[in-house]
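batch_manifest entry 22 of 60
target: 15-hydroxyprostaglandin dehydrogenase [NAD(+)]
source organism: Magallana gigas
requested by: lab member K.T.
priority: normal
notes from requester: please return tokens only, no post-processing; we will run our own comparison against the previous entry in this batch. if the run fails, retry once and flag.
--- input ---
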Amino acid sequence: DLFKKVKETFGCLDIVCNNAGIGGEVYPLWEKTIDVNLKGTTRGTLLALEHMRTDKGGKGGVIINISSAAGLNVNPLSPVYSATKAGIIALTRSLAMNSEVKSAGVRLNVVCPAFVDTDLIKEINDDNCLDVQKASKFIEMIGVVSKEVVVDCFMELVRDVNQNGAVVKCSKMDGTQYTSIEVKPVT
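--- output ---
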């Protein structure tokens, strides 16, 4: 697999970025949206953990999952997409707070960009959005952030070794913001 090849080539795997994003709100596209966005990110995260954990021969590191601002809010225009992105946030934070994962030397953080200048935004249609006209107006109001801003946000989380379980939103309107999500421990 890819992670094994990286370890063979570079000696270790220390940074992973899971960035999967498609939209699809009508059947059968909604199932593919769940498969790619949530299942794909989950699979990539768990595989990366296996290769990075210091208790399994890895050298530790950081996994940064790319979610979406849509995962932080209610989004009636793209409910399936939003649900997958909320799931990525919950997965990332749950693993980051897991004592086994923490002690294995792996940090996990999540970047939640708003609308980014990508093909996903350019291809909004009736298959991936429940109301294209409203979505277009919303995008115009919020603005589109550049890929470079998202990369800067990502790199900040890579470099800051004190960040674990961080949720960072980046948008044209609000810039970069660390988002506070209340954590209630499971007893």
